């Protein structure tokens, strides 16, 4: 099944690829590897959920924000590669969760992102991962995620 068919089956339409607000590019390609810059959980171009997991943001909401980050990353990847069908393997996911003191469920937050990648790419969506708790994220977002992906030249 193609990636487009899987997205359709999941009822997912990718958002427009986010444009950087600062001095970087959304995706860098080098020797068959795509490095997707950190993605914020933007809906219609704006972060809509603010705060820290374990305080203002509950686990389920943080997980949904992680999914939004992945969809943004896939949109940027598709805009750069022309199609997600060129993705051979998701290699690595780095997730950063703005965390209240004592919150240690960062892996559970990132599991939502990991699950979505496997739903979209099948076995090629399985990846190495880091789930890191941080004190603050840009725009007071709860999650930021970057990806490293192998693609077909």
Keywords, separated by commas or semicolons:
3 helices, 153 residues, two-stranded antiparallel ribbon, 60s Ribosomal Protein L30, Chain: A, five-stranded mixed β-sheet, single chain, alpha+beta
3D structure, described in words:
The chain has 153 residues and is an alpha+beta fold. The chain has helices at 3-9, 59-81, 106-121, and strands at residues 27-30, 33-39, 42-43, 46-47, 87-98, 128-134, 143-151. The strands form two sheets. A five-stranded mixed beta sheet has the order 1-2-7-5-6. Strands 3-4 form a two-stranded antiparallel sheet. Helix 2 (59-81) packs across helix 3. The chain starts with a helix and ends with a strand.
Strand order of the largest sheet: 1-2-7-5-6
Instruction: Quickly count the helices.
Output: 3
Main beta-sheet strand count, sense and barrel state: 5 strands, mixed
CATH superfamily: RutC-like
Bin the strand percentage. 25-35%
Classified by CATH, the class is: Alpha Beta
Shape: globular
DSSP strand count: 7
Mean pLDDT, as a whole number? Answer: 97
């Amino acid at each position: 099944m193609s990636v487009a068919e899987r997205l359709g089956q999941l009822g997912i339409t990718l958002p427009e690829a986010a444009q950087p607000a600062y001095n970087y590019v959304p995706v860098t390609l080098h020797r068959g590897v795509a490095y997707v810059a950190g993605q914020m959980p933007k809906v219609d171009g704006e972060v809509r959920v603010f705060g820290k997991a374990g305080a203002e943001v509950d686990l389920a909401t943080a997980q949904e924000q992680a999914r939004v980050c992945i969809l943004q990353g896939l949109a940027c990847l598709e805009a750069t590669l022309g199609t997600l069908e060129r993705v051979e393997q998701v290699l690595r996911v780095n997730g950063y969760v703005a965390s209240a003191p004592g919150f240690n469920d960062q892996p559970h937050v990132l599991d939502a992102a990991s699950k979505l990648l496997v739903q979209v790419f099948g076995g090629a969506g399985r990846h190495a991962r880091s789930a890191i708790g941080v004190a603050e994220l840009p725009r007071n977002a709860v999650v930021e995620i970057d990806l490293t992906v192998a693609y077909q030249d």
